[in-house]
Amino acid sequence: AQTVTQSQPEMSVQEAETVTLSCTYDTSESDYYLFWYKQPPSRQMILVIRQEAYKQQNATENRFSVNFQKAAKSFSLKISDSQLGDAAMYFCAWGNAGNMLTFGGGTRLMVKP
Amino acid sequence: NAGVTQTPKFQVLKTGQSMTLQCAQDMNHNSMYWYRQDPGMGLRLIYYSASEGTTDKGEVPNGYNVSRLNKREFSLRLESAAPSQTSVYFCASGGLGPYEQYFGPGTRLTVT
Hints:
Chain A is mainly beta.
């Protein structure tokens, strides 16, 4: 079975600064995807970024980028130029060909003005 | 294009009551999922349906049943609600690769 661990229950960042959220996972599969989802107070789960395990290049979406270390089974999310609207719960998730997602416990990100 | 819709948004039940949570998607996805999210935790898979006519258990299936009514609709039923089932329930759907899932807005269920 897969496990996903987010070791930081809470993080805070000053507006306009950069913050990195950590995620580690354990799997015996070779073909999988990793995701970061954002959950604001509205509860809606919003996909932030996705990484294919077979790609060495780290995914980037505007101010969001990942540091994917496959051998170390690490998948961190970097948010640059943090904005007040980035405040939310962030969940790391692992997915496979069966479309089964396994989620981490989440990190609450607070953004200070 | 509504994506994934869920009804109701909120529900309060007494212990022992039954209810069905409804989910529908308009993205022509084959796969649909039911998750629960307990306070301060990530989502855990209850049941999923890889295609119309099939359903399988996830991580926490006890106390629940599901029906894949057609390609669009996937319902979750609580036959005899218990306080331990107090949670937020999310429905999701997914298409062919890259394994991304799209989530509904969630149903907050309280069992007293």
